[in-house]
Amino acid sequence: MLFSSEVTADSFCHEVKKDNKDFLICDHVTPKNIFNGSKTIERYKYVKISNSSIIHIQLFRFKNIVFLQIINSLLEKIPYGGFSSSPNLEELHLELNEIEVIPYGAFPNFIETQSSTKQNYNTGTASKLKVLDLSSNSIHLIEDKSLTTESLRKLNLQRNRIKHIDGKFRYLTGLEELQLDGNRLTNLRRGSFGNLHSLRRLSLSDNPIKYISYNSFYALDLLSLLNLDETRITSVNWALRRPNSLALRRLEYLQLASTELTGMPEEFFTALPNLKRVHLENNRWTCYENLRFLQTAILRNSSLFENVEDITCWSPADFQGELVRDYKNWSQPTFATPEVTFTPPKIRPNVFTIGAAMCVGSIFLISGMIIDLVVFGGYQRRVRKQ
Q: Domains of the chain by range and CATH?
């Protein structure tokens, strides 16, 4: 059985002709009646299912399916090799479900054949999967070797609960677009995107990212778009150091809006020579002399900057909200020196300190008297001899 669940409800399916393709559109479909009637799912190459009560899925009966969409349903799990037995599958959309884990072997590089086993998937025909959409689920774990499909070109993991991605995509050597917006990433370490030499578009917006290693992007030789909007980064130095600086020289579109940036080095634009469009709006720019180069860059090439009207000063406080482009009060930052009043510590005398002082005083007094006696006695002897 393809679908399994104990939930039942009414279903409705109809055919739609689109781009010379026959789509089967099903709404509120149930596992009980998915194969009933003349419009059985096995007859179609293009299937869209929404608002269903499907919980588990296996595709061993879909030998010819090319496009499958199951959205806004109750799908919880992706079984081991669950889609490997569909040799013609090119697009798979499973957004708006309840998936929590991408398990080992879920999307192998080779489809299942009679000779392939769970221990060896490197047999059979290579997978044709090109688009995989797992957005708006509850995914918090990507197991090692769960994504090994070299044919994959676009992977959408937006709006999940992913915290770590280190090396999880290293087998996707053909991947061109990766969407990780709206997750829980806090840092990008070395090798986060290792081996993704074909990647052209990387979107990481709306993540609490604070730290980016200087070698996080070292493998992204063809990257042309990088989206870091609505992150918590406070510096762009990661883009100026090797090997990141070498990998990002092809970058054409950079989005750094609504971050915690307050400034940037003057050599920033020199380090990204192919930049065509940059978003710097809604940041906390400190408009002092060291940021004046940004105004110069905007005036020289306004077409480079998106939403110039929203690139405004955050400080000094007296000029908050003024456009960086029109700002005129450039000055060195001043820091108020607080008044420091020295108050000597209060020493409270005690019995021991008073006694010690009296002993020392007595010693000096006695010593003085002895010296006086010695001197006076010597004087008297000299007088008698005379």
A: 1-113+121-141 (3.80.10.10)
